[in-house]
Amino acid sequence: MTLLILGIESSCDETGVALVETRADGQVPALLSHALHSQIEMHQAYGGVVPELASRDHIRRVLPLASQVLGESGKHLSDVDVVAYTRGPGLAGALLVGAGVACALGAALGKPVLGVHHLEGHLLSPFLSADPPEFPFVALLVSGGHTQLMRVDGVGRYEILGETIDDAAGEAFDKSAKLMGLGYPGGPALSKLAEQGDATAFKLPRPLLHSGDLDFSFAGLKTAVLTQAKKLGDELEPRKADLAASTEAAIVEVLVKKTLAALKQTGMKRVVVAGGVGANRHLRKQLNEACAKNKVRVHYPELHLCTDNGAMIAMAAAMRLESGQQQASAEYAFDVKPR
Ligand code: KG4
Ligand code: ZN
User: Fold this and answer.
1) Listed residues: CB within 5 A of ion ligand 2
2) Which PROSITE patterns does this entry report, sorted A to Z (predicted)?
3) Is residue 334 part of a domain?
4) Which atom of ligand 1 is nearest to the CA of 168?
5) Least crowded by CB within 10 Å, which of 17, 56, 207, 250?
6) In what helix (H) or strand (E) does residue 317 lie, and over which residues does it extend?
7) What is the position in ligand 1's atom list of the atom closest to the CA of 171?
8) Ligand 2 centroid – CA 239 distance (Å)
């Protein structure tokens, strides 16, 4: 029997809806269609995400996006077997929109619902690609709010090997970008500017690089970038690309070296990168080179599925249900877990 899952993501500034279908032959579930509305433009004027505006925009977008994915896949709402939504972490009001809509649809259709952990969505997003990974693997989860190295033995079988003790890698990109005046979202902007810069121009710290464990720390790097920017003063403008390139190189070097250390520690030969920072070109290039040298297979989500989307939520729900790790529930008194 196959299951048709409607997934809804609304944890932050992207409204995502998708349809994923499990397969009778036990193969990786298939993505039938997905649609996304990014609120980036709306928040840009404020230099960051405004939670109240985010919630209101999710309300405006979510049902039209659901109609869109149903239309594109030739499915009808009554074909949906399970409605999945992001339960957390994220902005409380934003999460409540997705959860509320999912539970209302579930109740109206008489179909069960399933709350999904946002990070599990990211973690399993490489299974949406044409060449999905096999278990077990090491995962490098790098988003705006999290930086973790994990040992992944199967669906729901996750062991954290190391994580950031302060800022996340995405935060390091965003905060550095902000103090260089690059606006929001900073990561992609900093990375784009870095392409024209000299990564050896500024000596920036590689926090915890030699700590001997698999933890990360990026708060000191941000401070070093701030100090450097202040020192440059009026000279910052012409040197901005160099500072961006040096910042990106510092973040990426730590991520790559620690990932290699995690592979060595676990003896694994496969790594999966997930989360928004996984879209970073320099990270992909450096990691690909390091993995090739060490005969390690590396898997990424497709570029457009690195940042938040509904497909990863529908996929995580599908994989959880198939593995028997969790059951969808007809209990519609929902809650969300912002943290
Ligand atoms: O996974 P995500 O969409 O949201 C969270 O769950 O946090 O990740 C967003 C983060 C932001 O910090 C953003 O700046 C960063 O991913 N990001 C990038 C790039 N694209 C997105 N950072 C560096 N280079 C990129 N190309
Ligand atoms: Zn995310």
Assistant:
1) 143, 308
2) GLYCOPROTEASE
3) no
4) 12
5) 56
6) helix 310-323
7) 12
8) 31
